Amino acid sequence: MTEHAVPLATNQDLDPVRLRQAFGIFPSGVVAVAAQVDGVLAGLAASSFTSVSLDPPLVSFSIANTSKTWPGLRRATHLGITILADRHGGLARQLAGPPATRFDGVEVLIGPDGAVTLPDGLAQFDTTIYREVEAGDHTIVLLRLHAVQHADHSLPLVFHRSAFGLRA
Ligand SMILES: Cc1cc2nc3c(=O)[nH]c(=O)nc-3n(C[C@H](O)[C@H](O)[C@H](O)COP(=O)(O)O)c2cc1C
């Protein structure tokens, strides 16, 4: 192993623009988080999704504290999570756009407890909120899984360097 006694550069690298670039080097998938709340479909796209625990079965995503959708969405009895496929770049943008049209033309499945999933996705999870953890300008939402379904074996949508698909 080669050791270099060079410290990592200073706080200048922690400004939000540079930090966003650095975080973006790490690729992630994209999910739709959605539910029916008071008879209305609500949801958003999230690239912060990650698996957390097998026992109990937990996953997580982080929601910006500025989200206008989350205060209503978090009231849902159950939340649906759908892992998007590589053909879903446009859909992901739509699910991050104006809330009133996020589900326009989107085929959805509504579970008995209000979890909303997209049958065209790669995997679907029926979840409830297990815990919400304050984390700076975001909240980490831990979700407990109640049901899982996955049948589609096509490629996942990848978000990398603020765009879809891997890039050098
Ligand atoms: C690919 C992609 C990934 C996103 N990931 C997240 C995320 O992990 N957390 C988050 O709070 N917002 C994320 N967003 C933004 C939300 O989808 C949404 O636009 C944002 O929450 C603002 O809408 P709202 O005020 O209705 O919540 C992402 C958007 C895109 C296009």
UniProtKB/TrEMBL annotation:
What's this protein's family per the entry? Belongs to the non-flavoprotein flavin reductase family.
Record key words, sorted: Oxidoreductase
Which SUPFAM superfamilies did the record assign?
FMN-binding split barrel
According to the entry, every stretch annotated as the Flavin reductase like domain falls at: 23-166
Is Oxidoreductase a UniProt keyword of this protein?
Answer: yes
Protein name (Swiss-Prot/TrEMBL)? Flavin reductase family protein
